[in-house]
Design brief:
The protein is built from 8 helices and no strands. By secondary structure, the protein is mainly α.
Length: about 190
């Protein structure tokens, strides 16, 4: 497996071989996700290009580090961009006489901010105890407390609720103590 920075450097240098490699390894997974979530191939191509552009611009600016594999990271960026696109389309009012202006720079800035928030969250969730990581993983997958009682062999749902609360509180405390936290609150 190649170092994620290899791909970022290739994007910056506009290395055709690296860009093709990224496309071949990642695009169809993004296309599948977007197709299953009310999108088309054109939407997937736009999101994929925006994600690559976002990563290149951000890497050029701050030389950030990716702690997972590049394909997983890129897929997460694409998912976030597509979810934002879906949320924006819910808020639009259709009017044939009004032309809506979009500020692409603001979209890119919001995407970068969202990605940095995700990275901060991901950095700290990995620092929780093994038990908390498992509990939070099930919580985020929307497992019921009853299911969690059986999986962890706790005595009751109340115990599960308490463990979830304590793990969430610890995660919040760790994130809020990070110097990056305040800068990621708003754009």
């Amino acid at each position: 497996m190649k170092d994620p920075n290899f791909f970022l450097e290739g994007l910056i240098k506009n290395d055709e071989k690296v860009v093709k490699d990224i496309y071949n390894n990642s695009f169809y997974k993004v296309l599948s996700f977007i197709s299953k979530n009310k999108g088309s191939r054109v939407d997937a191509e736009d999101v994929f290009q925006n994600a690559l552009l976002q990563l290149a611009v951000r890497y050029k600016k701050e030389k950030f580090q990716i702690n997972t594999n590049f394909e997983a990271y890129l897929f997460t960026v694409c998912k976030n961009l597509w979810r934002r696109e879906l949320n924006k389309s819910k808020l639009k009012v259709t009017n044939d006489y009004v032309i809506e202006l979009r500020d692409d720079n603001e979209d890119i800035a919001l995407s970068v901010l969202e990605q940095q928030r995700w990275e901060l969250f991901n950095d700290y969730i990995q620092q929780l105890s093994e038990n908390c990581i498992k509990i939070m993983s099930m919580f985020f997958k929307r497992k019921s407390y009853a299911e969690m009682v059986n999986i962890f062999e706790y005595s009751s749902e109340t115990v599960v609720r308490q463990r979830v609360f304590k793990c969430k509180a610890k995660l919040k405390e760790m994130i809020k103590s990070d110097s990056r936290f305040k800068s990621l609150l708003e754009l």
